[in-house]
Structures are given as C-alpha cells and as structure tokens.
Amino acid sequence: MSRYRGPKLKIIRRLGKLPGLTQKTSKKQNPPGQHGKQTTKPSTYAVRLIEKQKLKYNYGLNEKKLYSYIKKARKSRQSTTQVLLQLLEMRLDNILYRAGVTHTISAARQLINHAHILVNNQKMSIPSYQCKINDVISYRLKKKNYRFKKSSLLPSFLEINELQNCLIVKNIISRSQILLKIDELLVIEFYSKN
C-alpha cells in the first residue's frame, strides 16, 4: 500500500498535531489502543520512529519516497536537515496547501492529479513536482470560483498576483516558517542506522 487511507484521527492522537493531514480534532486525549497512555518512557528508537512517522504522514509520503529525499539531502553540501525540509516543503502539493488553496495536502494532491493546475503555463499532474524560485502556479480552468486569494496566513516565500490569478514562488522556505513541529535531526539519525 502506498499511501495511508485509514482513520486520520488515530494518527493525530498517536503522533500529535499534523497540520497537513486533516483539520479534524479529536475529543479523546489518550493515544489509540486498548491500553491508552503508556506509563513507561519510550526508547530512543521509539522517539526517532515517531518523528519519522510525523514527516511521513503529514506530507503523505511512503517509506521509499521519504528515504529517497533523505539520500538526496545527504548529498547536498548544506545542512542535511535543512535541505530535507526544503525538499518536502517545495513540493507542489505542499505549496498549494500552504497558499490556502486546499485545507489538506491530500486535497491538494487530488487537485493536481485531476490536472487542474498549471506550472509555468504547462499542465502538471505530478504532486511531488519540486517547485523552483520564480515558478508561476495557476489554475487551468479560468472560472470565477477558481481564484487565488490573499490571506494573512500566506507565508512570505509565496506571493499571489490577483490580476493574473497566479501564485509565484519567491524564495526557498526558511525553517521558522514550517508549520510542523518536528525535530528533523532525529529523522536523520533514524535513517543513519541503515
């Protein structure tokens, strides 16, 4: 199975808040399962595994794709953790989510798969497309209900041009603008064992 399609509230109760997974919130406080909250301290392996799963579920990745991003980040001359988060945040589906076009990353992925999005005036149906600086993202359909709207929540690395109804990637995202609360060094350590 490539992508998790099960109950998302169980994942949120187990891992904590994941903004890209769902907007729903659970009334239950304990983690899922028969015994609920465990009293024992988690092992170092368990802590690293939880951090890896946060990345995996939030961005909707499978294990193989996440590992390929880790390998690509290791080859870079910059900080591995910084490059990893930049690779994940510069995906087309995540950029549409961050711009407020959709409420979740999976909804943005569906919008892209149905070929409603143009990147630099070319039809794009690949959600994992790596956006670059000065890429122009627009809707393929020119109807009134398909509009990019300016918002106070719009991150500074994106810009909306309302006259042309397009979204422009201005910069690479900085660490302070990432919504997911994660210790990315633990993810790198998890994969360093392999």
TrEMBL record:
From which domain of life does this come? Eukaryota
Question: Which SMART domains is this protein grouped with?
Answer: Ribosomal_S4, S4
GO MF term (any one): rRNA binding
Keyword vocabulary terms for this entry: Chloroplast, Plastid, Ribonucleoprotein, Ribosomal protein, RNA-binding, rRNA-binding
User: What are the residue boundaries of the RNA-binding S4 domain, all occurrences included?
Assistant: 90-153
Which segments carry the region annotation Disordered? Answer: 20-43
Residue spans of biased composition, Polar residues class: 22-43
- What residue stretches are annotated with the Small ribosomal subunit protein uS4 N-terminal domain? 3-89
Q: Which GO terms describe its biological process?
A: ribosomal small subunit biogenesis; translation
Q: Where in the cell is it found?
A: Plastid, Chloroplast
Q: Name one GO cellular component term.
A: chloroplast
The protein's predominant localisation is: plastid
State the function annotated in the UniProt record. One of the primary rRNA binding proteins, it binds directly to 16S rRNA where it nucleates assembly of the body of the 30S subunit. With S5 and S12 plays an important role in translational accuracy.
- Describe the protein's quaternary organization and the partners it interacts with: Part of the 30S ribosomal subunit. Contacts protein S5. The interaction surface between S4 and S5 is involved in control of translational fidelity.
Which family does the record claim for this protein?
Belongs to the universal ribosomal protein uS4 family.
Record PANTHER family: 30S 40S RIBOSOMAL PROTEIN (PTHR11831), SMALL RIBOSOMAL SUBUNIT PROTEIN US4M (PTHR11831:SF4)
What protein name does the entry list?
A: Small ribosomal subunit protein uS4c
Q: Which organism is it from?
A: Codium arenicola
